[in-house]
Design goal:
Helix content is 39%, strand content 23%. With 290 residues, it is of the alpha/beta class. Helix 1 packs across helix 3, helix 1 crosses helix 4 and helix 6 packs across helix 10. The protein is rod-shaped and about 105 Å long. Belongs to the LysR transcriptional regulatory family.
Length: 290
Amino acid sequence: MNARQLEVFRAIMRDGSVTGAANSLAVSQPAVSKVLHHLESQLNYHLFERIGGRLVPTMEAHLLYEDADRVFREIESLKHLAHSIGEHKIGLLRIGASPPITYSVLAQALVQFRASHPTVKVHLHALPKKEITEQLILGEIDLAVTLSTIQAPTVRTEILAPIPVMVVLREDDPLAALERIGPPDLAGRELISYGNHADVAPALNAAFAQHGMVREVSIQIGSSIGAVPLVSGGLGIGLVDGLVRWSNFAGLVARPFAPTVNMNVAISTNAARPMSRFYEPFLKSIRALL
């Protein structure tokens, strides 16, 4: 039983006659009769008998109808889904994002994106850059938003905005009185910051070297969010990105680091994979916030 035969059988059962089915399907009566005859030939039994001038469903037709009606409605639902996907009403966007991005601009970017694409499902993977890179290459995500560029043969990266490094400290710290904080101010203080493997590390190290100092990191973190409980607990001063809204954390303040050292918010896709049709709308949303 193919989809057309299913549609004709369901219409005859619903409308009670070949004429009624032909009218509801907007086809000729002979066309409906032909499809019905072919279906009964394939099944090798009758679905209807003509009694007293009326077309009466057989027991076999009643047995088939409930499942046939369900299958037909599922096919119609699938057609609607396929049509909606084609009109960009429904879809899926898989995003990989570094934790600082996830906890700062991403939520508002998704609010703006979903305002114009309310039926698009979003799968968010908040992961370190290394894992994000692996997922992007494997095609498990459509795009990546990170705090540094992804270097890989098939990856295309666009820098969206520079983000200055900030000094994060407790509000009762004496250094909180300064407008800007530089390496000399941090002499003898415990630093909570990125390790030398981080992309921003050379620029930070150079800033300290200009003052004859070495950037000694007491507690190394992979993500700036990890500095929150450490700084709050009095374990040191954070030297991290300024993307996170540090003012949202009670008892903490952030001051610009001098000299200015920037990290880059970057968005990346895999050139070896099809580009998501939702990439451009999402890019517009997140770019407006940076």
